[in-house]
Amino acid sequence: MRVILERSNLLKSLNHVHRVVERRNTIPILSNVLLQADGASIELKATDLDLEVSEATPANVEQGGATTVPAHLLYDIVRKLPDGAEVMLRTDDDGNAMSVVSGRSSFRLQCLPQSDFPELSAGTFSHIFRLDAQALKGLIDKTQFAISTEETRYYLNGIYLHTHESGGKLMLRAVATDGHRLARAEVEAPAGSEGMPGIIIPRKTVSELQKLIDTPDVAVTTELSDTKIRLTIGGVILTSKLIDGTFPDYQRVIPSGNDKKLVIDRQSFAAAVDRVSTISSERGRAVKLSIADGLVTLAVNNPDSGSATEELAADYSADPIEIGFNAKYLLDVAAQLSGSEARFMLADAGSPTLIHDTADENALYVLMPMRV
């Protein structure tokens, strides 16, 4: 194999694929990136057996071929080469090593044979649809913070994506929950998604997707089966296994009878929560909200270091209520809201609270209260 290409093109593709590779691997080939040169491009591919990302980039292919080299090592080398440089990739006759040459710099990397590289067989996809990148990014951004990290409840370790009938319209809905909070976002379902299976996209795949959707005006082609998802974003193809489990009936935890309405300035509220929670020893400490006519008082008590209170003007005219929330969870939700105000719908100190985004009626958040 002998290929010459722009450093910027190679770096961009390596940046997209190398993140999939785990730093520590018991299987050596999984530390490598597969390079396949053919025609006028070179394709890079990396996998961790659950997730695979590939991208082809334009190149001057003097001699076609394929090999695998350590992914993070190649990425670090190319990253440190000067802007505008040309890079030559050349394998030895015996295929055991590959030279990376640019200007006066020359590196020699050990290769493993292409035949050892595992293929994540995609199988057949039952549903194919195209979704605007901005819409997909919105679904992910608004829900991913609520994904559970508790491995025992593995079916909560991802975003549940499914279609749902709402007001006579079919919606594509994303839901994530860790049992303490729930985030839900939806967009109008694209053609082709009708009757799709409800799927759980794993946390690592969600994280990679967020980084790959860097151009908002691209249409993302999504292909689905019961066990796999494949997304094509521009020239990047991401294939991932899905979580094999049943997502709980989340509708049951979304309260419908919350009648106490609190409307508050989002930025002032987030800043006040951040300030008073400074006093607590860990981020999970509760902030107590004392809500009365036109006023919210935030309070944190820490027996070891002291206490803090702050008052905020708010739009509230129902019965007074005192309720506690995890400070970090309040800040996480506030960071997702796009409107200038947050609307809380409360019931009592022991019941889940609904938080609405005043600028996006398709986003909804549920927070479980804490005892204070």
Number of helices, where a helix is a run of at least 4 consecutive DSSP H or I residues: 6
User: Could you name the ranges where pLDDT drops below 50 across 5 or more consecutive residues?
Assistant: none
- What spatial order of strands do you see in the largest sheet? 6-2-3-4-17-16-15-10
Helix content: 10-25%
Strand content: 35-45%
Radius of gyration: 25 Å
The backbone outline, from C-alpha atoms, is: elongated
Helix-and-strand structural type: alpha+beta
- Biggest sheet overview: 8 strands, antiparallel
CA(first)-CA(last) distance: 66 Å
Beta-strand segment tally: 25
- Mean pLDDT, rounded to whole units? 94
In short:
The protein has 372 residues and is α+β, with helices and mostly antiparallel strands. It contains 6 helices and 25 strands. The model has no long low-confidence stretch (mean pLDDT 94).
What features would you describe in this structure?
- The protein has 372 residues and is of the alpha+beta class.
- Helix content is 17%, strand content 44%.
- It contains six helices and 25 strands.
- An eight-stranded antiparallel β-sheet has the order 6-2-3-4-17-16-15-10. An eight-stranded antiparallel β-sheet has the order 14-11-12-13-25-24-23-18. Strands 5-1-7-8-9 form a five-stranded antiparallel β-sheet.
- Helix 5 packs antiparallel against helix 6.
List the helices and strands and how they pair.
Blueprint: E1 2-6, H1 7-18, E2 32-38, E3 41-47, E4 51-58, E5 60-63, E6 65-70, H2 71-80, E7 86-91, E8 97-102, E9 105-110, E10 127-132, H3 133-143, E11 158-166, E12 169-177, E13 181-188, E14 199-202, H4 203-212, E15 219-224, E16 228-233, E17 236-241, E18 260-265, H5 266-276, E19 286-292, E20 295-302, E21 306-313, E22 321-326, H6 327-336, E23 341-346, E24 353-357, E25 360-367
Antiparallel strand pairs: 1-5, 1-7, 2-3, 2-6, 3-4, 4-17, 7-8, 8-9, 10-15, 11-12, 11-14, 12-13, 13-25, 15-16, 16-17, 18-23, 19-20, 19-22, 20-21, 23-24, 24-25
Helix pairs in contact: 1-2, 5-6
